[in-house]
Amino acid sequence: MEYRTLGRSGLKVSTLTMGTMTFGGAGAFSAVGKTDLDEARRMIDLCIDAGINVIDTANVYSNGISEEIIGEALGGKRKGDVLIASKARMRIGKGPNDEGLSRHHLIRECEKSLKRLKTDVIDIYFLHEWDGVTPLEETIAALDTLVAQGKIRYVGCSNYSGWQVMKALGISDSHYQPRFVTQQIHYTLEAREAEYELLPISVDQGLGVLVWSPLAGGLLSGKYRRDSPTARQLAGWSEPPIRDEDRLWRIVDVLVEIGTQRGVSAAQVALAWLLGRPAVSSLVIGARNEAQLKDNLAAASLVLTDDERSRLDAVSRPPLLYPYWHQQLTAKDRFGPADLVLDRSGI
């Protein structure tokens, strides 16, 4: 297992992170998976044995049950150098303050997560989603309080737009308060929108990137092909949205072709492509069963050739939106490292 420094921190994270959205299977999350405590223990041990050192969860996963299962599975003790990442922001109750990033909600939910996880500290604490109502100054000050109290160590954001990330970083810098060291984003061969703003920001501002749902909810696993609905779709789970199905299946065709040639699964090829992208620190992998988990774990050692990467780039290249096409025509002689993240070869 390879370990990468998380952004401008000194923290080393494994290139694969264990995702636990399947733990519990309560409410809407039953469409994703129903991993119970015994199976969770086996999966956690499997991941740790493979060298994974990050377990990712959130207070909203099965309404806290995912965190409870992790706490029980670890027995209140950290195994080796295991890091725990969790999140808050989503609605977690029926009250008026049971969602958002207010000081009230954020500190309360962090303290609840600590109890469920049976730990004194959360290593990486993510703002799970943007909150356009709460002033960012209040949110970042609350994170500062939690860091000062020793309840969290590093902070990050998830599902923010480019301007939202930069506004938060500006506030942190001007107030000398904790700065995001990482983003957790959706980024796949099928969904490369992050290359417009989020990945360049990560390169420019020194943010690590954790990728959630790196197989697009199983769509890039190679298990599903044209005219065969996925398990999540059959269960009514709508993430991620697919706007061009023909493009999706062309991407899957290439993944399967490369996987067959290399003697590996299409899923491993899709994960290996992501691990070669700029600023990517770790991929959050989840699984419905141990067989899926073992297959995903094997991606950590797969290195694609330049030709294989070129084939995947060509079939998945995003359109060059404005102002990027204009910059490509008039400014490419002065591009910096962050500018070069976006694939502009299609113009």
Automatic annotation (TrEMBL):
Q: Where is the signal peptide?
A: none
Recorded protein name is Aryl-alcohol dehydrogenase-like predicted oxidoreductase
Key words, A-Z: Oxidoreductase
Q: Enumerate the SUPFAM superfamilies for this protein.
A: NAD(P)-linked oxidoreductase (SSF51430)
Which Pfam families has this protein been placed in? Aldo_ket_red
Q: Which GO terms describe its cellular component?
A: cytosol
Known CDD domains for this protein? AKR_PsAKR
Where does the record place the NADP-dependent oxidoreductase domain? 16-316
Q: Name one GO molecular function term.
A: oxidoreductase activity
Which source organism does the UniProt entry give?
Rhizobium loti (Mesorhizobium loti)
